[in-house]
């Protein structure tokens, strides 16, 4: 008998603090006080049948202190490792904004260690957007992994009027703790 188990990563927040009508998440980000930011994390839902109900895990994938949202996942068969690409939310005097794309890795899709992570894109290696980078999606293309992301460009932290960027990672992906030097 063949069993399939489907997973869905979802964004979880501790709530929006005002009842003001919003045109989108960008407006919500702009209204947040930096001394009391919304805490974001990733949740996990699962089902064995896409036509049936989903069960949401009671505990988030990461602590809300990680400040992550919007996830894309990739499995690397050569090292039997899952890679979770996600936004990191930066907070400074200008407000909250997606300041980087991080990647976490795990052998088990249902258990992640927040210490096993690395920066994929941020102000140090993105040439056209220095402060606001986010919404990663990954697609395998032959021997490379395309990382699609959005950003407003320059030093803007605007959540509207964004362009799409593309970064390439060579495959196979190997976490730093699994690299062997020959």
Q: If you compute it from the alpha carbons, what radius of gyration comes out, rounded to the nearest whole angstrom?
A: 17 Å
CATH architecture: 5 Propeller
Strand runs, count: 10
Strand order of the largest sheet: 4-5-6-7
Distance from N terminus to C terminus (CA atoms, Å) equals 42 Å
Largest sheet: 4 strands, antiparallel
The succession of helices and strands, N to C, reads EHEEEEEEEEE
The stretches of 5 or more residues where confidence is low (pLDDT under 50) are 13-32
Oligomer: single chain
> What is the name of the CATH class?
Mainly Beta
* CATH topology call: Tachylectin-2, Chain A
Going by CATH, the homologous superfamily would be: Glycosyl hydrolase domain, family 43
Primary descriptors:
182 residues; mainly beta; Tachylectin-2, Chain A; 4-stranded antiparallel beta sheet; 3-stranded antiparallel beta sheet; 10 strands; globular
Molecular structure report:
It is a single chain. By secondary structure, the chain is mainly beta. It has a single domain, classed as Tachylectin-2, Chain A, CATH 2.115.10. 4% of the residues lie in helices and 44% in strands. Strand 4 and strand 5 form a beta hairpin. About 11% of the residues have low confidence.
């Amino acid at each position: 008998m063949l069993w399939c188990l489907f997973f869905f990563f979802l964004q979880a927040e501790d709530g929006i603090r005002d009842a003001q009508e919003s045109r989108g998440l960008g407006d919500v980000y702009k209204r947040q006080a930096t001394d009391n930011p919304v805490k974001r994390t990733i949740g996990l839902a699962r089902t064995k049948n896409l036509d049936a109900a989903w069960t949401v895990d009671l505990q988030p994938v990461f602590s809300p202190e990680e400040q992550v949202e919007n996830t894309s996942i990739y499995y690397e068969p050569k090292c039997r490792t899952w890679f979770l690409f996600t936004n990191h939310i930066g907070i400074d005097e200008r407000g909250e904004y997606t300041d980087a794309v991080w990647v976490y890795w795990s052998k088990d899709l249902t258990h992640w260690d927040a210490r096993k992570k690395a920066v994929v894109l941020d102000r140090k290696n993105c040439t056209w957007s220095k402060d606001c980078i986010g919404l990663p999606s990954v697609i395998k293309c032959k021997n490379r992994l395309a990382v699609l992301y959005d950003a407003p460009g320059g030093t803007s932290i605007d959540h509207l009027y964004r362009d799409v960027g593309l970064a390439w990672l060579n495959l196979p992906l190997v976490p730093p703790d699994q690299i062997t030097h020959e």
